[in-house]
Amino acid sequence: MNNTCYIPRTYLRHHRQLRALLIGHEAWFSAQDLSRLLSCHFSARLPSMLDADQSRREQLRDANGQFAEELLLSESGVYHLLSVQFYHPENRNLRQWLTHEVVADLRGMGQAA
């Protein structure tokens, strides 16, 4: 981890936030927010369920404007969790929202910058 602090965009789904951002050209998501969206608890072992390039720890700004170290999950890591580790038929709707709205918005912003 470096000393960079990231300011994510916040997306709402069912009155729950999901913080997401682009690092380079890759979409990354707050693991804490994703666990709330899935209504499940991610254990400290979560990174071991993923390949090394699918998770990272970074300083991320929260809703109060404070920065704290958080676990971030890559787009491929999130899709792996939704389809394998935490499979549920309803996750299809979440995956579609992530793909067609969140990631599309993030990448659209990245092209404008």
Automatic annotation (TrEMBL):
InterPro entries: BRO_N_domain. PROSITE patterns: BRO_N. Coiled coil: none annotated. It comes from Metapseudomonas resinovorans NBRC 106553. This is Bro-N domain-containing protein. It comes from the Bacteria. Residues 1-110 form the Bro-N domain.
